Each structure stands twice: as structure tokens, then as C-alpha cells.
Amino acid sequence: MKKNPRITLWSAKSSAVFRYLRKTRPEFSISKEASKLIDEAVSEKYPEIWKLFDDI
Questions:
Q1: What are the pLDDT digits (tens) for 9-24?
Q2: Which of 3, 31, 37, 45 has the highest local Cβ count within 10 Å?
Q3: What's this model's pTM, rounded to 2 decimal places?
Q4: Kindly report the CA angle at 1 between 37 and 18, in degrees rounded to 5?
Q5: Number of H helices, E strands in the chain
Q6: What does the alpha-carbon distance between residue 19 and residue 16 come to, in Å, rounded to a whole number?
């Protein structure tokens, strides 16, 4: 899981927001922001499964 932690998603609106932020905020990272948002959403929606991977 840690070796290749990639995920591909497609949302035209989210993509547009991330590209806008990348162009307008100097230190903005699409990958870091997407990772943070996905982790928050998945951990809230599936907390019992999320806890299974606490040691990773």
C-alpha cells in the first residue's frame, strides 16, 4: 500500500478548482490537497474500515 499509493479520480469541477488553485497559490499542491480531502471523506464515511489500517 505504501509502495504505490496512487488513485485516479475524475471530476471536471474538482479538476478545475485544483488547477485554479495551483495557478493562484504559490505553494499549492494538488496531490497533497487531494490526498487530505480523500482521507477525510473516506475516514468519515467508513470509520470501521479506516480503523483497520491505523498501523499503516
A1: 789 999 999 999 999 9
A2: 37
A3: 0.74
A4: 25
A5: 3, 0
A6: 5
